[in-house]
Amino acid sequence: MKERDKFRTSPSCRKSTGSNAVEFTYCLVFIFFIILLPLANYGTFMTRWAISSQVVNAWTQNMAKKRKLSDAFKSYHTDKFALEVSNPTGVKVTSVSPALLISKVNDPTQTLRVEQPGKIPPNWQPDKDSFNYSLSVVVNTRIDPLVTVQFFGLKVPGLTEPADVVMTGSALWENMGRDPITTEYYVNE
After folding, report:
1. How many other CB atoms are found less than 10 A from the CB of residue 86?
2. Alpha carbon of 63 to those of 14, 49, 90, 134, 187: distances in Å?
3. Residue 145: CB partners within 8 Å, gap ≥ 6?
4. Could you list the mean pLDDT of each consecutive 10-residue stretch along the chain, which spans 189 residues?
5. Interatomic CA distance for residues 133 and 25, integer angstroms
6. Per residue in 81-122, pLDDT tens?
7. For the purposes of burial, counting CB atoms within 10 Å of the CB of 90, is it exposed (0-12), middle (13-18) or buried (19 or more)?
8. SS3 content of the chain, % helix, strand, coil (to 5)
9. Residue 159: which residues within 8 A CB-CB, separation 6 or more?
10. Which letter does DSSP use for residue 67 in this model?
11. For residue 102, which of 126, 128, 132 has the smallest C-alpha distance?
């Protein structure tokens, strides 16, 4: 037998299947941490954002049906609103800012933003001209990724750390009636 053939049949010889197993492990780690984990974080982030955004829109539409503007503003500052928005775990409400947006129908560039009930000027009330009244809510949130993992010191909001997200909702104010006792418009109470 030749010397070369002895070397190939020797039991102490390194086989190619062993080296492939080690390389395969590194490949699996690479695929998980570089491809699958960021995709899972991104998908979870987008799902949490979509659900919370729909909750903000639904609450805004329901609050625009309230009798008084002050009742609508109070309901946004309750714990129930924050719990509904953060229902998909990983969403934290940091601030809520409701406002009434008033715009003239014949000139939409003229607008007024009212952030407190009872502060609508007399010339912007429903009996003075034709206006559109819409309730608007701006909700500042922080959305956590599924798994917070640092890659080589990179900080990517929504993938490796929580991201600050602003959600908005708006709906037309429906009650243009007057309070029979105070004769004030409900939209200004």
Report:
1. 18
2. 73, 21, 25, 11, 12
3. 41, 44, 45, 90, 158, 159, 160, 161, 162, 163
4. 55 58 72 75 86 90 90 84 79 90 89 90 87 92 81 75 91 87 84
5. 61
6. 888 888 767 788 889 999 999 999 888 889 999 998 888 898
7. middle
8. 40, 25, 35
9. 38, 41, 42, 45, 145
10. S
11. 132
Write the DSSP string, 104-132: ESS-TT-EEEE-STT---GGGSTTTS-EE
CA 85, 62, 118, 138: dihedral to nearest 10 degrees? 30
What's the predicted TM-score (pTM) here?
0.74
Q: Which residue has the tokens 């008033």?
A: 102
